[in-house]
Amino acid sequence: MRRTKFAAVLAAGVLALAGCGDSGSSDDNSNGGGGDGAGSDIKVGLAYDVGGRGDQSFNDSAAAGLDQAKDEFDVQSQESEAEDGEAESAREERLRTFADAGYDPIIAVGFAYGPAVQKVSAEYTDVQFAIIDDSTNTADNVTNLVFAEEQGSFLVGAAAALKTETDHIGFIGGVETPLIQKFQAGYVAGAEAVNPDIQIDVTYLTQPPDFSGFADPARGKTAAQGMYDAGADIVYHAAGGSGGGVFEAASESGNRAIGVDSDQYNTADPSVRDAIMTSMLKNVNVAVYEYLSDIVNGEEVGGTVTYDLAADGVGYSTSGGFIDDIVEQLDEYKQQIVDGDIEVPTTP
């Protein structure tokens, strides 16, 4: 099954899971009057990737989708997050803990949960699982929620090439995996569509199985500062929580950065806000919310659901007004991608 969903703008809050490695818990149904009780017997388990809620990026976007579902459907929820450097068995046990406690569905945030979801979903065939950023699981009780990150990255790459004053830009990936290479491939393709001769520096903070590159702002700052010192004036990061360091380097050096996943102009520390030119939007919130909406309403789930430019599943932000003068050009590129006139690569 391959489906496409439409996007919306959602808000985030703060939860945690007791007994699964987090501090605190959230299992009440207070929603400010948003729900009607239709989903009050549904218990959602959300397993975050490294960085968890509060990363101002990927995990926070997933949290926003859960928050809206709690508000609208009165579902119960518990949350847990992966620890940097943890063994595969820890991810498996996190999912089993949810299943044993009666949580159904269970949502795993990030491709790193792929093997764990495959193994645990086979043990709990009566529980529904969803995983973000992995499309390899074909079990009937698993829904794969995936995105065309390369398409959104193409647009911010074009934006960087249109706004650079040095014809020199950069890309920082958190961990060099096929998923993050999609961001790189799209960004480079978009920049080169504008200027085939543009100089693009590329670096990754860590290599698998070391996933700390998604949660190391200091390393992100050092990498970005090196690019700025070498002449780049705009750097795009796909590095999760490490992006905070990229923004610091951009702000301190008087340059610009491009955020990822969320509109980071609105989520990053106010002291670096003016350095964030735009963000590549990856609407994980929409995927989580719509999946839970289907569960609550008894809709069929399973298979692979793809969120692309045609569905507004990815895109770019205009907060701060820094790219208002090039929106028309970016939207022309977007239409060419949607129409199939531009095929964006998924590998560098």
Automatic annotation (TrEMBL):
InterPro entries: BMP_lipoprotein (IPR050957), Peripla_BP_I (IPR028082), PnrA-like (IPR003760). It holds the Pfam family Bmp. Residues 1-18 form the signal peptide. Its main location: membrane. The keyword Membrane applies. Gene3D superfamilies: 3.40.50.2300. One of its GO terms (cellular component) is plasma membrane. It is found in: Cell membrane. Residues 47-346 form the ABC transporter substrate-binding protein PnrA-like domain. Residues 71-91 are annotated as: Disordered. It is a lipid-anchor. It comes from the Bacteria. Keywords: Cell membrane, Lipoprotein, Membrane, Signal. Belongs to the BMP lipoprotein family. This is BMP family ABC transporter substrate-binding protein. The lineage of its organism: Bacteria, Bacillati, Actinomycetota, Actinomycetes, Propionibacteriales.
